[in-house]
Write a structure and sequence with these properties.
There is one protein chain. With about 375 residues, this protein is of the alpha+beta class. It is built from five helices and 15 strands. The longest helix is centred in the middle third of the chain and has 28 residues. The protein is elongated and about 85 Å long.
Length: about 375
């Protein structure tokens, strides 16, 4: 029963994590605070945005006709082959193109292709649930969770999370308790953020947008991981079979380096001494990833949880064992895009208060942040 409940909960998490990509882009809260302290003429440069998931929010009232940012007196923005220009305006000119006499824009630059820049027991001989049936359920669960993880990774791999260049007068859509409204980026104030803390832009509005590039791997926030590999199962003294296993994790990274993840492990197989065996674990893991070298990240993890293992048909006879487990090891991640990484880990796990030998694991898979 615990196996069915655990699988159902994790399936709900994975199925709820996907979604279609929106044509609107959120401006993160930290970026909004930076913007209101930045000179208005420079606010359109290296603006951090995150593409939304799901349907576009309802539009605010149509803003006044868009016009380019009014440049400082004496600055020539575009004058044929001779350009006399402020450094900020030079970037706008090169990235967004010249402004026509009618204020029209050339349209947004298409985003770069995906993949751009840049988780004391005892033993006995009593009966239990049929192991063959539980193994079949575990295989189906792993297949379903893996498929959901691949879908989520594809969506997040396509999702743009990075920097853009827009005109300082680009429309910003604000949402708050009094409904949606629109202000120009150069006119955004701290009072606007207090009244409407949610802000987003549409890149096809205004003068268009230049996609500067994706941000590096970002773990802060919710995290989902799915790994498969070799997982050991301590059953009784001297019998620790290792077979195919899967680890599914969901949790939260409070910082880029530190995260706490709930974890579910399924491991099983067939071995001469154990016969058919299956281990189901639920627990929590603390991840610490302090070392970053380009796209590689290295760290460690610690694990604690409950394990429920069964075996039948082998030389040791019927075994049903439940107990507290603890362990840890090293973890390595390779950045793919801002919100997706490939990871591998190696570690040990042991039954607390039991003299059986520690079980090893070596797994690899995908992390979606």
């Amino acid at each position: 029963m615990r196996l069915q409940v655990g699988v159902a909960c994790l399936m709900a998490v994975v199925m709820g994590s996907g979604g279609c990509l929106s044509s609107t882009y959120d401006i993160p809260e930290r970026e909004l605070r930076r913007l209101v302290e930045t000179e208005p003429r420079d606010r359109g440069l290296s603006l951090r945005v995150v593409q939304r998931l799901g349907e576009d929010p309802p539009p605010a009232d149509t803003p006044d006709a868009w016009v380019p940012y009014e440049h400082e007196p004496g600055v020539v923005v575009y004058a044929g082959p001779q350009v006399v220009i402020h450094p900020s305006y030079d970037l706008y000119h090169r990235r967004l193109g010249p402004v026509s006499p009618h204020g029209h824009h050339p349209g947004p630059v298409p985003p770069p292709p995906s993949g751009g820049p840049s988780g004391p027991g005892g033993s006995g001989s009593s009966g239990g649930a049929d192991i063959d049936g539980e193994q079949a359920l575990a295989i189906l669960a792993v297949v379903a969770l893996t498929g959901g993880t691949l879908i989520a990774a594809l969506i997040e791999g396509e999702r743009y999370d990075g920097w853009v260049t827009v005109d300082p007068n680009h429309p910003v859509h604000l949402w708050g308790p009094h409904g949606p409204r629109v202000v120009r980026l150069a006119q955004l104030t701290a009072a606007d953020l207090a009244d409407a803390p949610e802000a987003m832009i549409r890149l096809g509005e205004g003068r268009g947008a230049f996609m500067e590039g994706r941000a590096p791997l970002s773990r802060e926030g919710l995290a989902w991981r799915m790994e498969v590999g070799l997982v050991g199962v301590p059953l009784v003294d001297g019998v620790t079979p290792a077979g195919l296993g899967a680890i599914a994790q969901f949790g939260y990274f409070a910082t880029q380096e530190l995260g706490l993840l709930g974890t579910m492990t399924l491991a099983g197989g067939e071995e001469a001494w154990a016969g058919d065996y299956l281990d189901f674990r639920m627990g929590a893991e603390l991840h610490w990833m302090p070392i970053q070298a380009s796209v590689l990240n290295l760290g460690a993890y610690g694990h604690v949880g409950m394990s429920s293992a069964s075996a039948a048909g082998g030389a040791i006879g019927r075994v049903d064992r439940t107990g507290l487990v603890a362990g840890g090891g090293l973890a390595l991640e390779l950045e793919i895009v801002t919100r997706v990484a490939v990871g591998v880990r190696a570690g040990l796990m042991t039954l607390v208060g039991d003299d059986s030998e520690a079980a090893s694991l070596v797994t690899g898979g995908l992390s979606v942040y």
